[in-house]
Records
---
Amino acid sequence: MKTILLIATDSIRSLLHQRLLLALMLASLALTIFFCVILSHARKNISSSFSEERADNYTTVTNHMSVAEQRRFRESMESMTSTIQAGYYQVASFGGSLVAMLIFGTAVAGEIRRGTIRVTLAKPVSRSQFLLGKYLGGVAIMAGYALLAGGSIYFFAVSQNVDLSPAIKWGPWLMFFRQLMLGSLTMLFSLFFHPAIAALLAFFAGNGFYSSPNPLYFILPSYQDFNVFFQVIQGSLIDARDIFLLSVYAVDFVAIILLLALWRFRRKELV
Amino acid sequence: MAAIRIENLTKTYRAGWRGKETTAVRNLSVEVNEGEIFGFLGPNGAGKTTTIHILLNLIRPTDGAAYLFDCPVTESEVHRRLGYLPETVNLHDYYRGRALLEFYAALCGLPAESRQARVSQLLKLLKLEDAADKVVARYSKGMAQRIGFAQALLHDPDLLILDEPTASLDPVGRKEFRDILLDLKRRGKTVLISSHILSEVESVCDRVAILQTGELKRAGTLAELSAGRCTIITVKSLPPDVLNALTTTAVQITLAQGQFTIRCPDEPLHQLVGDLLRQNNIEIVRTQAESQSLEEIFFSSIEAPPRL
């Protein structure tokens, strides 16, 4: 376990030195700020359209309205807040997918290409330890990304004094698991193909194109179940039992894919 | 116990869409004894690096087997006794020199309390103290080679596998490297060196193996490899009829300082000349085997490549 943690720590260090990864993370952060600014402006515009009086405060505006106006105002605000939350989630989720594909696609393949794996595996490090360490390093980065995404949506909610959609609260959690599935599949494919091809294959390997009787529906990952975009738009709830089942499904899927990756990596020629 | 045992090793690669086969190593059998410095020689494409990669379990042999200290090379635990310096030193260049060595030391299982001391010792030995806090990406080729050698020595391994270890070193660096190798030999360590620099191999190796196109051409000590080759017979005089008889053979005869020197290129000719001299009652001043440099042995062992 100590060796796996050492490889994982090195992997994190290596990933944090990847300019493209840092650029993607910074872009996600910039988009978060962008969404917050848009929301702030949009709220002010809606507020001013409902009241002659300039006010930055929701309560101040609603105090001067009739009941019907208040309902319409509330609906407009909620609709806009939900749309922005869903948009924010979609951007964070897509950015996270790009980060996951980059991290997991190059984690092992990059070491083979650069030749650094030769020195590492000449140490008392088994191939399984190496691969699991690399995966764990990626998981840590993705956990950091999910925290960043969750933290920024929380910051957005507090700073704008809005209630978060019930579904968005689970967004970062489900996004994290979705990206772990995508990452494990990218890592497996990168042991067969070029990382870019591996990433594309993994990204489009979702079972969304198939329905229940087709065996592929059961084999391919079910990415869309982890997407809370429509639930955020509709403001609907997600059952805790569903969250639990989805989490278990993701862990099982990752475990199976990692076993396949280990099987392949043990047989792979590393030069 | 042999530090390295290679038995009938064959490695065939398949390349391209048609799966065209290329044999990099063909039925190779070699043993490297504990405590010796063994040179692995051969022109480009001889199969040296492929063999090393099999020993490191980076690639699988198509046939045959390889063992390190009697353990199959697939056992990663045997790497606790192994140090490796690759031909092209590709290390994690985002580390600073000292941090990189500490990372590898941790991977080797060195206890945390002795890790820093060992790293400092190696930085001093390889004259990298001034570059210890510099990012490895900014190292020169020579410095990268030195830190690569340092990582191979970290856990004081019993066996070192060095692939072209002095390729990027200046003459001073090569001398220092040679001294370190001789010190390792004194301490009973085993070293396998793959190198193109024959003079360097000659100065440190106990035994060598010469490979060409994946096949073992010759193996043994320098004395063994040059034995049975040229013999020099010195005589005081040669009657004209004997001289005439000798000139019809492949021997080379020179006259210097009133003595004839007869150079016999192989053992049968040496026997023939000896018989002829004895039959004619010619006094032989001395008979000696001609010493060959490793370069001469090397070139006499490999076949000339086909002309393009």
---
Amino acid sequence: MADRRLILHFDWTLFMLVLALAGVGLVSVISASYAGSHRTWDPLVVRQLIWIAAGTGALLVAVFIDYRAFQSYAYPFYVGVLGLLIAVMVAGHATGGSRRWINLGIFHLEPSELAKLAVVLVMVRYLREEPPKGGWGLRHMIIPFVLLGIPAALVLKQPDLGTGLILVLITATLICVGGLNWRTMLVLGMAAMLAAPLSWHYLKPYQRQRLVSFINPQADPLGSGYHIIQSEIAIGAGGPFGKGFLKGTQARLNFLPEQSTDFIFAVFAEEFGLAGALVLLTLYASVIARGAWIARHARDRFGALLAVGLTAIVFWQVAINIGMATGMLPVVGITLPLVSYGGSSLIAMMAAMGILININTRRYLF
Amino acid sequence: MAKFRSSNSSRPVPKLDSRIAAMTTIMILLFGLVSVRLYYLQVLHHKENVELADRNRIRIRRVPAPRGLVFDRNHRPLVDTKPSFDAVIVPEDSDKNLSQTIERLERYTGADHIADKISDAEEAGRPPYEPVTVAERLGWREVVALEAHQLDLPGVSLEITPARHYLYGQLAAHLLGYVGEVTKNDLIEKPDYHNGDEIGKFGLERVDEGFLRGNAGGQEIEVDSVGRRLRVLKEIPDTPGQSIVMTIDLNLQEAAEQAMAGKNGAFVALDPNNGDVLAMVSHPAFDPDIFGGGVKASAWKELMTDPNHPLTNRVIQGIYPPGSTFKIVDSIAGLQEGTLNTQTAYNCPGGLWFGGREYHCWRKQGHGTVELHDAIVRSCDVYFYEVGEKLGVDRIAKWANKMGLGIKSGIDLDRESPGTIPSSAWKQKRFHERWYPAETLSVAIGQGYVATTPLQMAEVAAVVANGGTRYRPQFVKAVEALDGSIAKSYPPKVESRIAIDPAALETVKDAMADVVNGTGGTAHKAHLDDVIVCGKTGTAQVVGSKAPTGEDEADDKTPDQFKDHAWFIAFAPKDHPTIAAACIIEHGGHGGSASAPVIHDVFQRYFQLYPPAPKPEIARVIDNDSQ
């Protein structure tokens, strides 16, 4: 009985948006890998296709489990992910100077992708009760800070500045939307701004280099500023309508070691131009709008906040990734959701979209 | 339940709906900001960025270091480098006209398979805009043609690189080895190598790659959109490789090459007093120069499919039954074990009945009753059947191993074969079968399972020559730094020592001297007038050959491919020897007629170059008187 209604009220809009974004991702991964191999069906592309299929499966599974059940799984899941993050530190697979992966034989699991979901779930679980009159004050925030602090510290240790930043931002979004009082919001905002310069001391040398390069890319055009300069050139050279599929020359310069992951937007924007980039942005905006709509129409506060949290993951990753590629923000390693190459991020993100559809579908069921 | 206790605020509970709406608005606005930035980059600054993309091509070019030089023991150059004009192409710069450019390039340079070379480089993971070398070692005419047609050849440029040059062509080819372009596998295994780098592939070039290579320099070059270099922005100088001084003597090597000319086989000469390799020849050889210039597919195929295996270094990889040269090992073993003394006599009627079948001596009419000295000189098979039977296979194996057979010599070359010295344990392990005493007879005359390399047999000669010390054969004397100082030296390495009874040793040496100089000896062709050469001939039966193992000088009519391999091992002078050698001529027939002349020629040259200490005739007279 329930199954029939699930299918009846399935959120086809969001599902199609997700597939469209995954399609854009596949096209971009083809372009990015074609640069090196001149093969359309590079192993990278084949693997991305497999991830998309696996992610679609994860999405469907996430749709069919009643999201309210997540309330009781939130803490165990959170603890499990913390365990994985610790495992990464102990037995992780290091690439490019940081330990982020656990080798599972056929698959390199990146637990920091799961950490985003875990923080959203546990935070929403904690914040699901109505705030008091006037909203939460600072004293209500102690436990959320602890819940955020542990995974954030573990992720920063890897070091994965990008994911750490995302964890902070989605927590902030949930607290603000959930009902922080305005005054506390202001105080915390000010405190964050004041603390920013202090964090300089905790940055690794290469992270500092990136910040310097962001402020003045020409200071070291062949070193750390190279990525920003070349990414901007790629996007700019794309022009209004792009150079065409597989015709991007900047991408072929091998200027970005991460051109199928962190800098995939530059690859896409060079080949499809402003028109393509705006289509992509519109797709993301639609996902966000749909997520917000689902949040407002959810049957319970848990569902609503969960939808907000998941939407926030998408938004912040898109904003920071594209902001970085266009030179508006310093370089941090963050994937473009549903588009960047990579199994962990793609499957985790599609599962998150499945939960959104789940929340939307079940508002009719109870 | 009430986690968030209500404060006494008069303000309302925050509304989720309105806050979500606010969040959405902020998010969409921020996307708007991103769109403005995109408009700025892609529309307002589009032209600029296109120009930057086209022009912004700073190439980092590696400048390979010239490889180190290789000298002979007297510091005469054997291998050096000379400038080579190479045509390189950056396929990206040729863009749409690539096939046309390739076609023209092939016409101007005469190079072939340029397209294949480019696709190979792509396969090997060529980074974009890195040039691919497509034609190497161009002559003056080709260089001029390329210069003149620069504009028709977008993406093509000339490069001057140091190229390996082997001054004497095929001379010592297997020892010197050759260089070639790094393969995909090399690139994976050795992170400090780059696409297009040269690497030692074989012989000395390979094993001493670390000394010879040097450190590449680099240039940061700005190029325009058709790949023409505009200027060098930064330069890091290269460091040439270190030089290698070898132990081989150029003149001696030349003499050996000449003596071996037109024959298939191997020759190696050692200094018995320290293991230095004085000359090493493996024929047929190859021309090491053809690999450096990007070996042509046809030439490579020819080398690989040549039935004579020119790429095999027969000195260390060729394994042959040692035949009668093995009788020296039997003699030492028997004398050391006490199953044999210099007076031991056996009768040779031309064969020996054993286990119900007859084992022939090469001389059908037999040798009569012979003692050890004559048995060696005349190479009597029956005598050594008896010696072998008394010893048993395991004791033969023990002494053969001690003299360096059945084990690797330790020479610093790749793919050395240890050969085979059978024993009862070996047979049990290999065939799960016990050893039959009759098999020992074949072993005793160096047949059956016995297999040795020419280098091992030269070691046997050297061990007898120096009285029992087996040195590791070494072919590098020193590595010289750029300032001429010695960066690494190679002192002699003793692999093993056996204490041979001086009287017994003298008997063997005497007999070996008579093999060359005495009546009935089998190697008169190795005789020198002023130096006493000691030697032993051998004939390695070729599988399928019906001819009897023999030393008979009378020629038979066996077709060449069934003719036996001819062995000769020798050292000289008899007292205080300074050179020991082994030679095998494939299908040469008899050791005395085919291999002894090679050693004769080389030894003659050697004593011209390094005259033996004048014989202290007077001292000898006094010596005799005092006895």
